[in-house]
Sequence to fold (421 residues):
Amino acid sequence: MKKSTEESREKIIEEYLDTALLAGRISLENGGETSRSENTMQYILESSGIEDSFADITSTTMFASLGDKTKISRIDRWDNNLNKVCTVNSISRNLCSGQLTIHEAHTLLTESQTEVLYPLWLRLGASMMIAALLPLFSGSNPMNCIAAVFNGLIMGLAGEVFSHIRIRYFIINLFQGLLMVLLTDLFAVLFSGMINTNEVLAASIAPMLPGIALTNGVRDLLSGDYLSGAGRMMEALVKALSIALGVAAGLSIQKLYTLPVAVSQITIHPACLILLQILSAYIISVGYAVKMVNPIRSIWGSALVGSAGRLAFTFLMQFTSVTETIATFLATLLIALMGNLMARRYKTPVTVYLISGIMCLVPGIALYQSVYGFVFGDMALCQSELINTLLISGAIAVAIFLVDTGFNILTYAKNKTLFIK
Fold:
């Protein structure tokens, strides 16, 4: 009888450990921040009612311990699928509240791994839509938008192909940056004088920038996971560097031939420009939500957050004397505030709203101009735009950090775990 009881306990421990590791893996692999994945694992282990539970995640390794057993699992792939992060969050909540058994939770988590929310054609369409509308932020002519559409399609296809053959993201981003420059030059030759390559390339870079890595890095640092946070920030830096190297390689090839003279920008009335940018930001945010595989119910919220942030940025740049960095900081504060409020209202990870929201503010133009200046020997341009890129990225990170800190303080105060004497 005693042996049977021990075997039953061992089986229960094994099932809880496997479920916790599976939940952490799905969350981390698909864009969840380390602190959220770690907390999810801990909640699942604690729901067993067995003492001595422990969960920890480093950059690529997960540890789960329950009773006298410990299991380790390694993370070796990364993807962007925020719907799976939300699914893990929901299953964990239901398990901890007693609405699911541990066996049911494990089954649902296993099934979620093969779930396809948006088909390939829709994700490619989202990439094309994002690329088509981003040039409008700088008042580009319609031909630039058409060229950017094809860039979005090719970049989307290349990303899908490379992700299935398990090539490292550094190589993928480098190749995409190179291919993007060569394709844009081809369109400039085919449509002589109608394509401004600099505007097309600057807009095409923005969707490739590592928004999830930057946002999760900031949130992990805020949560005290300094190793994982620093790792995510380094990941963002390496991804941006790989994109820059690919673009630099393409621009170096571009120096070998002469492109037609580009046409100038179109002139738009400031009021019309604001309306156009708000509408574009809304559509771009929808497209990025689809690209990041946000849950369907969160798409409208993501689009609302993104368009509100762009409206704030455009208003500040048009009608005040603040710098681009300050305007980005204030707009990101609004995005982070709205994102946190919606996340708490609809019980979804705040990353779902933050990533789509900040995409209309990322410094794609500044990053491109710094690479352009480096390749063509204009070191003054390279230096100034590189500093601008770092300042804008820093403004986004600090704004997210401040708002998250404020909400954490309010949460602790509400739960009566923070006492101010």
The longest strand covers residues 61-66. The chain has 16 helices and three strands. Residues 83 and 296 are 8 Å apart (CA to CA).
